[in-house]
Amino acid sequence: MILPRTGIGIDVHAFAPESEPRALWLGGLLWEGEQGLAGHSDGDAVAHAAADALFSASGIGDLGTHFGTDRPELAGASGVTLLAEAARIVRAAGFEIGNVAVQFVGNRPKFGPRREESQRILTEAAGAPVSVTATTSDGLGFTGRGEGISAVATALVYPAL
């Protein structure tokens, strides 16, 4: 019997200070007119949480293990690129990917109108279905105050035959 494995990933980023303009990349998409997120790479919390969930499900470390801030060549790296590389690493470890589900938490950007576009890009990167949902935290905590965003993901993998 082939038993699937599940994993959880979370990623949190603060918005970069207004004095340091950055592009906002989220869910594999560029959000014109929005202040970007602080981080070593592009700060795409949705893509990062998805990659972390894949590593968790496979039992092969986490985002920091594979793409840590000690790797200067990853400064500014695309979250989509990291997700594609995570999927490659997971498959090389002997797993296939069933799916990934990501929940984005933040007041902005308004994610719903671009959900399908994001899911297409992330699905292509992972080589498996990726779904993204979004919510606010009803004004509570750092996301509610508009200081940053978070994303939580689950992934299902199973041993390759």
What does this structure look like?
With 161 residues, the protein is of the alpha+beta class. The protein has helices at residues 45-58, 63-67, 79-92, 115-126, 141-144, and strands spanning 5-14, 23-26, 29-35, 95-105, 130-135, 148-159. The strands form two sheets. The protein has a four-stranded mixed beta sheet with strand order 1-6-4-5. It has a two-stranded antiparallel sheet with strand order 2-3. It is globular, with a radius of gyration of 15 Å. Helix 1 (45-58) runs parallel beside helix 3 and helix 3 runs parallel beside helix 4.
What is the strand and helix layout of this fold?
Elements: E1 5-14, E2 23-26, E3 29-35, H1 45-58, H2 63-67, H3 79-92, E4 95-105, H4 115-126, E5 130-135, H5 141-144, E6 148-159
Parallel strand pairs: 4-5
Antiparallel strand pairs: 1-6, 2-3, 4-6
Helix pairs in contact: 1-3, 3-4
Q: What separation lies between the terminal Cα atoms?
A: 11 Å
Shape: globular
Number of helices: 5
Poorly predicted sequence stretches spanning 5 or more consecutive residues: none
Series of secondary-structure elements, N-terminal to C-terminal: EEEHHHEHEHE
Physical arrangement of strands within the biggest beta sheet: 1-6-4-5
| Strand runs, count | 6
Q: Determine the mean pLDDT.
A: 93
Structural class: alpha+beta
